[in-house]
Amino acid sequence: MIVGIHQPNYIPWFGFFHKMLSSDIFVILDDVLCSNKEERRNVIKGSNGMISLAIPILNKKAQIKDIEMNNQLDWKHRHIYTLQGCYQKADYWESLSPSFIDIYQHSGNKLIDFNLALIELIREHLDIKTPMIRSSEMSGVYGEKNTKIISICKSLGAEIYLSGSGAKSYMNEEAFEDNHIKVVYQHFNHPVYPQRWGTFIHNLSIVDLLFNCGPNAKQYLEKQIIV
Question: Residue 219: how many CB atoms within 10 A of its CB?
Answer without folding.
Answer: 12
